[in-house]
Every structure is written in C-alpha cells, then in structure tokens.
Amino acid sequence: MNKKTFKALYEEQKKKPTAAQVFVSEVATLTKRSEATVRMWLSGQQVPDELAQTMIAEKYNVSIDSLFPKTM
Angle, nearest 10°, between helix axes 35-43 and 19-31? Predict the structure, then answer.
C-alpha cells in the first residue's frame, strides 16, 4: 500500500489536465493548429477557416452553422 499524504494526493490531481485543457488539445491536434489558436477561436478573436470548421463539426457531430455563429 502506498503511503501518501492527503496533500500529496491533492497535488497529484492538480497536475492532471482539466476537461477544457483536453478539449483544446484535441481540437488543436485535429485541425493541426496550435492550442493558442484554438483559444483565440474560443475567445472570438479569430474564426477558423472552413476546413477546420468542417473537421470540428464532423468530430463532434454538430452543425457547422452552429459552431461559430455570426454576431451582429
């Protein structure tokens, strides 16, 4: 049996990527873009090209039109 402190167990968990980090990494890998670029898409600073949008829509089985709605 391992001997670890409660604090050590907590620190181990903190090192694991969050679901959001995993999502960003997966989309970056899928579209062959950097994670920084994917974060810009998320913040609305940039919009991916049509090919990247198509790849994302297919991966997550969503409508391409709903991914990046145009704001007025």
Answer: 110
The first and second tokens of residue 53, run together, are 């949008």
| 68 HSE (CA, 13 A, CB side) | 17
Nearest to 43 by CA among 20, 13, 11: 20
Taking residue 72's Cβ as centre, other Cβ atoms within 10 Å add up to 3
Supply the DSSP symbol for 3: -
Cβ atoms 29, 23 nearer than 8 A: no
What is the model's pTM? Answer: 0.84
Please list the pLDDT of the chain residue by residue as tens digits (72 residues). Answer: 889 999 999 999 999 999 999 999 999 999 999 999 999 999 999 999 999 999 999 999 999 999 998 875
